[in-house]
Design brief:
- Pfam families: ART (PF01129).
- The protein starts with a strand and ends with a strand.
- Helix 2 crosses helix 3.
- The chain is α+β, with helices and mostly antiparallel strands and 225 residues long.
- The protein is globular and about 50 Å long.
- Helices cover 24% and strands 22% of the residues.
Length: 225
């Protein structure tokens, strides 16, 4: 379980992956994916082809990601590294991005919505399993006041992948949340975060990725002036 402290300074636009919080249910786990361990580990090409009819432009984005991936780190092969990079890429419009649609499927009560993603998810989780789990402080945030939804002592699960950053300075920059206005910052003390910056499309955001089904407990709130 990760512990979480919420800095509630409480607008409303999600800032891509790092602010994709409001759609989380905060409930406990859904039914697990049946027989996930039996899903074969297939190539990126096959995983992408299985999603062509669901995620538009996926083949094109995968080609770009593969071209950018020359010599992956951390013992990952090229397909594994590209699966992470593809997850971090942003489509135009944003709601068509792979990470948006995958996370929507992970949160859905109807588990059949996740079935088309199984081969890609298997590849992505295999890649992430090769990265060391980090014990670190990670940050997420949103331009909205969510403190009432996360009372002290609350234990909850985020069902989807959760993108965080190790850099509070980055999160409070004008490109992200800024330092003024209504905001909620999540300070997360995690033990199983995956540092994906070596495989991300965006190398300079110090991204920590938390896996689906990570459990948290709210420790405290602060409300600085």
């Amino acid at each position: 379980m990760a512990s979480i402290a919420i800095n509630g300074v409480a607008s409303f636009e999600a800032n891509q992956r790092f602010s994709d919080i409001e759609n989380e249910s905060r409930a406990m786990l859904l039914q697990p994916i049946e027989d996930f361990e039996d899903i074969p580990l297939l190539s990126l090409k096959t995983a992408v082809e299985n999603l062509e009819d669901i995620v538009s432009k996926l083949v094109q984005y995968a080609a770009v990601a593969k071209e950018r991936c020359i010599a992956p780190d951390n013992g990952l092969n090229r397909d594994e590294s590209v699966s992470i990079q593809l997850y971090t890429m942003i489509w135009r419009p944003h709601f068509q991005s792979l990470h948006v649609q995958l996370n929507n499927a992970l949160r859905a009560e109807d588990r059949t919505k996740l079935v088309p993603y199984h081969t890609y998810l298997k590849l992505l989780l295999t890649a992430l399993s090769k990265l060391k789990s980090l014990k670190t402080t990670a940050w997420r945030g949103i331009k909205a006041d969510l403190t009432s939804q996360y009372p002290i002592g609350k234990v909850f699960v985020w069902r989807s992948f959760s993108s965080c950053t190790e850099s509070l300075e980055l999160l409070q920059s004008n490109k992200f949340l800024g330092k003024t206005g209504v905001r909620t910052l999540f300070r997360i003390e995690c033990e199983t975060g995956k540092a994906i910056h070596g495989h991300s499309y965006y190398k300079n955001v110090s991204e920590i990725l938390l896996l689906p089904g990570t459990q948290f407990q709210v420790l405290n709130h602060t409300n600085p002036e």
